[in-house]
């Protein structure tokens, strides 16, 4: 069976205030053309269809158009909700839509109930694991302490139990939206950290033939059977080196996997430039970036006058302007920035306790801080679902 694996459409999202709806519509055109031209037998979309719980009407209309076009091809589509989606809103009408071959999986309780498709070699069971916010699904999966690994492992136990009861030779595909160990993130993904740990091991997906992952925006291979498709479009300058694509996956009769990357259309290249303003304006090697979306980091010791206006004369699509002046190593601002670089909220809070009290927090106090951060994130997740 030939699958097309994609995720993280983020319909309705802008790129540094530049509307992306036309680029998203072009991606949908490309998706439909790929399904038709490459004889795809099933499309899997691993979450974050929308960029927020209550998307703009234009994004809903584009999603509706995509569903109609996929249904018209007669190719089944399986979708899950991601952490940006409202699972309840995305799942409205799922029963009716399923009659058209569009299978929306947004209910965590249904993790062990697959969509079963059939090809010349037998059945393929598709299990949809929507984004599992630990604080919201801990009771459903009866885990003692909510965490991403615990709830995802419990969901996969249901998958394996259902698969074990099926006919020998049944192949399996899991759709999941999570941060798997070994994956490379970007600035575009919303933080899903709970208990200080967001990542789950790839081994949690053992026992299935292919895991189609969403959440991370870079297309990447964790193992031959566990892959991220990445987002089809860039949503931050941290994705400047990404090759935006989808996975075309052939699932053999014996469950073997071969995968090919299918490139997505690029609306405009990204460029991250760094240097003094005068250097950026004069360097002939930067001519290649004059039509790109540009993030410029100026290193002038003193902030120059009208930097954005001057940059835009050469790079008219400059969207982000940052300042990182060259300073001596003992400059107080440099020292403070280095202390914070790469540190989690928990570590920064513990450092503050140490600074104020003269001694770091003990184990109990660390737990209190961690629980406080988890409670804030859980409240944010509840409010997002309720919107």
UniProtKB/TrEMBL annotation:
Keywords: DNA recombination, DNA replication, Endonuclease, Exonuclease, Hydrolase, Nuclease
Gene3D superfamilies: 3.60.21.10
Gene Ontology MF terms in the entry: exonuclease activity
Domain of life the protein comes from: Bacteria
Domain Nuclease SbcCD subunit D C-terminal: 267-355
Stored InterPro entries: Calcineurin-like_PHP, DNA_Repair-Maintenance_Comp, Metallo-depent_PP-like, Mre11_N, SbcD, SbcD_C
Residues spanning the signal sequence: none
Span of domain Calcineurin-like phosphoesterase: 1-218
Entries under Pfam families matching the protein: Metallophos, SbcD_C
Subunit structure: Heterodimer of SbcC and SbcD.
NCBIfam families, sorted: sbcd
Family: Belongs to the SbcD family.
Protein name as it appears in the record: Nuclease SbcCD subunit D
Organism of derivation: Streptomyces thermocoprophilus
Gene that encodes it: sbcD
């Amino acid at each position: 069976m030939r699958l097309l694996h994609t995720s993280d459409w983020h319909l309705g999202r802008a790129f540094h205030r530049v509307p992306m709806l036309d680029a998203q519509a072009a991606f949908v055109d490309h998706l439909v053309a790929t399904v038709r031209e490459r004889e795809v037998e099933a499309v899997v979309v691993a979450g974050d269809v929308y960029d927020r719980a209550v998307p703009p009407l234009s994004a809903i209309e584009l999603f509706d158009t995509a569903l109609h076009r996929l249904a018209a091809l007669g190719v089944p589509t399986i979708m899950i909700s991601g952490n940006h989606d409202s699972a309840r809103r995305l799942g409205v009408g799922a029963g009716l839509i399923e009659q058209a071959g569009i299978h929306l999986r947004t209910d965590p309780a249904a993790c062990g109930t697959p969509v079963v498709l059939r090809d010349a070699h037998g059945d393929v069971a598709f299990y949809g694991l929507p984004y599992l916010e630990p604080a919201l699904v801990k009771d459903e999966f009866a885990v003692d302490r909510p965490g991403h690994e615990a709830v995802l492992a419990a969901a996969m136990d249901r998958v394996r139990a259902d698969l074990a009861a099926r006919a020998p030779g049944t192949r399996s595909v899991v759709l999941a939206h999570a941060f798997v160990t070994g994956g490379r993130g970007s600035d575009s993904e919303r933080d899903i950290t709970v208990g200080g740990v967001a990542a789950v091991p790839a081994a949690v997906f053992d026992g299935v033939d292919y895991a189609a992952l969403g959440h991370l925006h870079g297309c990447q291979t964790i193992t031959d059977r566990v892959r991220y498709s990445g987002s089809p479009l860039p949503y931050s300058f941290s994705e400047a080196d990404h090759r935006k694509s989808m996975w075309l996956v052939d699932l053999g009769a014996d469950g073997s996997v071969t995968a090919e990357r299918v490139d997505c259309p690029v609306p405009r290249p990204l460029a991250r430039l760094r240097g003094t303003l005068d250097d950026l304006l004069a360097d002939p090697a930067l001519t290649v970036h004059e039509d790109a979306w540009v993030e410029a980091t100026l290193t002038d010791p003193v902030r120059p006058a009208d930097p954005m206006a001057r940059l835009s004369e050469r790079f008219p699509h400059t969207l982000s302007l940052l300042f990182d002046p060259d300073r001596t190593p003992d400059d107080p601002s440099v020292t403070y920035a280095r202390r914070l670089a790469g540190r989690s909220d928990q570590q920064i809070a513990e450092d503050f306790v140490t600074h104020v009290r003269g001694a770091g927090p003990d184990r109990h106090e660390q737990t209190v801080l961690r629980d406080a951060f988890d409670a804030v994130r859980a409240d944010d997740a509840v409010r997002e679902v309720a919107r």
